[in-house]
């Protein structure tokens, strides 16, 4: 038997036996279980298993952090339990039975945006690199950019926008595809639907606003008795979500009621055409107003005379949002803000949280430097945290021992205030760890690197200090 066979048998018993397991699967580092009764799981004993680096419950799933060898453990658990694992999608569906209405809404939103995140991160990195070579005067005594001096890098700058434009300008296409896939309608028709929102035939939103302000010509479809403005929804998030939902509802309704012999013709036509018509007359304009409104609410808070306080509170509370899943609701608002107000105010704070969580683990390893288990769990956790993946740090260590979590919260709150005081704004969502500076607007990159360094220092310092208090369970045991 493989090396995890004994631990797999013990875990099965500690989870309440096979009769308490509804389904299970695994991701890159975690086993994910849907349990009939989560109270039957002996969490403390599970976390004492040699292969376990931590556990937490989120999205109706009991998740156990194993590490990079999780696929090997998964195979051993299948053999030990006699239960076949299922896909992540099936586990998520079954886990929703453990969620309330708000949690289900957030879970569905997360599933729509989860496949999009890699593209958004790539786009953010591209924008950041273009900032460095094309917008910061680094050469000839600070008078010229790299692209102004070197034709090769000017070519790179222009070429990379091919990818950046595909990700950000045509973002509605990605979103409508993801919505349709999530709602089990036709994702290919979802792509077509998305293209109708960003077609080159349409005026961009900025051109439309300028035409209205200057009295210029506005392109329209002329139906004789009425006209429809030919205005696009490039980079818009909320309109794309609403239109994707509308199309999917129409598609599924028709699929259910139209006879199968004519279904292939009737269903696509009578779901796509009305959806596109409503997109450009009702749903799209309404979605734009909602999206712009949400983005401007964020802007008001972060642009007010108390913006540094708002940013600090956001940084302090963001880790709690992650625990509850509320942070998923921020991504569409952030993406909308990038288009509406020209930047993202919240992402600099989000990235500082990731850095703080990783740095708190560094302090934890220092405190427990004589503990081999702490090093084994902690070192991979803070390395992945600095690279933007914080689950092993946050759930595997910081929440478990509490004082590192509080230390990270305090550091994020303080540096969130400082970040806003110096005016840091991000171009886009990016990698939420040390590479995050690439996502900031060009003029804020260097100051933000300084804020990141301060965040590391403060997080380690706060965690070291809090380890001496009653927040550290070891101190409570001594007393």
Description:
InterPro entries: ATPase_P-typ_TM_dom_sf, Glu_permease_IIB, PTrfase_EIIB_Cys, PTS_EIIC, PTS_EIIC_1, PTS_IIB_1, PTS_IIBC_treh, PTS_Sugar-Specific_Components. The chain crosses the membrane at residues 105-129, 159-180, 187-203, 237-254, 266-286, 306-326, 401-425, 445-467. Its main location: membrane. The strands form two sheets. The protein has a four-stranded antiparallel β-sheet, with helices on both faces. Strand 3 and strand 4 (61-65) form a beta hairpin. 65% of the residues lie in helices and 6% in strands. It has three domains: 5-98, Gyrase A, domain 2 (2-Layer Sandwich); 169-299, no CATH class; 307-478. The chain starts with a helix and ends with a helix. The chain is mainly alpha-helical and 479 residues long.
Main attributes?
about 475 residues, mainly alpha, Gyrase A, domain 2, 3 domains, four-stranded antiparallel β-sheet, two-stranded antiparallel sheet, 21 helices, phosphotransferase system, transmembrane helix, transmembrane, transferase
Task: Compute the number of strand runs.
Answer: 6
Q: What's the rounded overall pLDDT mean?
A: 86
| Low-confidence residue ranges | none
Largest sheet, described in full? 4 strands, antiparallel
Please estimate the helix content. Answer: 55-70%
Number of helices: 21
Distance, first to last CA: 45 Å
Domain module count: 3
Helix and strand string, N-terminal first?
HEEHEEHHHHHHHHHEEHHHHHHHHHH
Strand proportion: 5-15%
In terms of quaternary structure, the protein is: single chain
Shape: globular
Pfam family, one: PTS_EIIC
Membrane topology: Multi-pass membrane protein
Active site: 27 (phosphocysteine intermediate)
Domain PTS EIIC type-1: 107-478
């Amino acid at each position: 038997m493989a090396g995890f066979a004994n631990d797999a048998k013990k875990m099965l018993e500690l989870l309440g036996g096979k009769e308490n397991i509804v389904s299970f699967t695994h991701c890159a580092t975690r086993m994910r279980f849907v349990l009939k009764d989560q109270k039957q799981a002996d969490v403390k004993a599970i976390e004492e298993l040699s292969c376990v680096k931590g556990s937490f419950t989120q999205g109706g799933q009991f998740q156990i952090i194993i590490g990079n060898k999780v696929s090997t453990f998964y195979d051993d658990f299948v053999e030990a339990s006699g239960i076949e694992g299922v896909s992540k999608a099936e586990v998520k569906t079954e886990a929703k039975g453990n969620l309330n209405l708000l949690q289900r809404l957030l879970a569905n939103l997360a599933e729509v945006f989860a496949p999009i995140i890699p593209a958004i991160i790539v786009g953010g990195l591209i924008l950041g690199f273009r900032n460095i070579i094309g917008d910061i005067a680094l050469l000839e005594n600070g008078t010229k950019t790299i692209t102004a001096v070197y034709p090769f890098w000017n070519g790179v700058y222009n070429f990379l926008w091919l990818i950046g434009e595909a990700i950000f300008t045509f973002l509605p296409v990605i979103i409508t595809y993801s919505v349709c896939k999530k709602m089990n309608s036709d994702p290919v028709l979802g792509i077509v639907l998305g293209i109708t929102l960003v077609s080159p035939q349409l005026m961009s939103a900025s051109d439309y606003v300028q035409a209205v302000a200057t009295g210029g010509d506005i392109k329209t479809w002329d139906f004789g008795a009425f006209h429809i403005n030919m205005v696009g929804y490039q980079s818009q998030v909320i309109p794309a979500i609403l239109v994707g939902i509308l199309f999917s509802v129409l598609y599924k309704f028709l699929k259910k009621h139209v006879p199968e012999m004519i279904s292939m013709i009737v269903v696509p036509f009578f779901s796509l055409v009305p959806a596109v018509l409503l997109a450009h007359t009702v749903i799209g304009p309404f979605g734009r107003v909602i999206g712009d409104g949400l983005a401007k609410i964020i802007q008001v808070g972060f642009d007010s005379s108390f913006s540094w306080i708002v940013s600090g509170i956001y940084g302090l509370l963001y880790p709690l949002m992650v625990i509850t899943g509320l942070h998923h609701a921020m991504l569409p608002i952030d993406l909308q803000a990038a288009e509406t107000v020209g930047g993202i105010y919240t992402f600099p704070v989000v990235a500082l949280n990731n850095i703080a969580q990783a740095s708190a683990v560094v302090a934890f390893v220092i405190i427990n430097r004589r503990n081999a288990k702490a090093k084994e769990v902690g070192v991979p956790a803070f390395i992945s945290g600095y690279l933007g993946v914080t689950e092993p740090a946050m759930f595997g260590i910081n929440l478990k021992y509490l004082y590192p979590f509080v230390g990270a919260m305090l550091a994020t709150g303080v540096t969130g205030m400082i970040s806003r005081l110096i005016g840091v704004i991000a171009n886009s969502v990016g990698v939420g760890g040390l590479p995050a500076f690439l996502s900031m607007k060009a003029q804020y990159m260097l100051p933000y690197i300084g804020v990141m360094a301060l965040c590391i220092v403060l997080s380690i310092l706060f965690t070291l200090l809090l380890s001496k208090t009653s927040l550290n369970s070891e101190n409570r045991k001594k007393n």
